[in-house]
Amino acid sequence: MLITIPAEYAASNAKTTLNIYSDSKLVSEQTIMFSNSILQNFQLLQNFPNPFNGTTVIAYTIPQSARTTKVILSIFDVTGKLIKTLVNTIVQPGNYSVSWNGTNSEGFSVSSGIYYYRLTAGTFQETRKIVYEK
Asked: Which of 34, 56, 57, 99 has the CB geometry, 3.0–4.6 Å to 10, for a possible disulfide?
């Protein structure tokens, strides 16, 4: 699931609630606040919830200055092995989020443990730690 929030909306100092569902059941609710300053820099946020069991959400920002940018967001294990690519597309500036349900690229559940997610957008690259608990 990829949630796209247009840059025009995100730059309007708006507040919204993000509801996260798993198997049609509400599992998390998060309030997101947007402001003009968010769109000034690339940003990779810490996943929520973390640690997680079920589904977690990873949010990131592509700034106005980036124009159109190729974005890759992938999950890796502690050895650096690619587990799954969640996003591999060209996007416009804005705020985005994607969920990960703890599965690999073949759809099988991964083991409990520490993983890393990496955002690559143009020349920007950032990696953060994620903890999966079954």
From this structure: 34
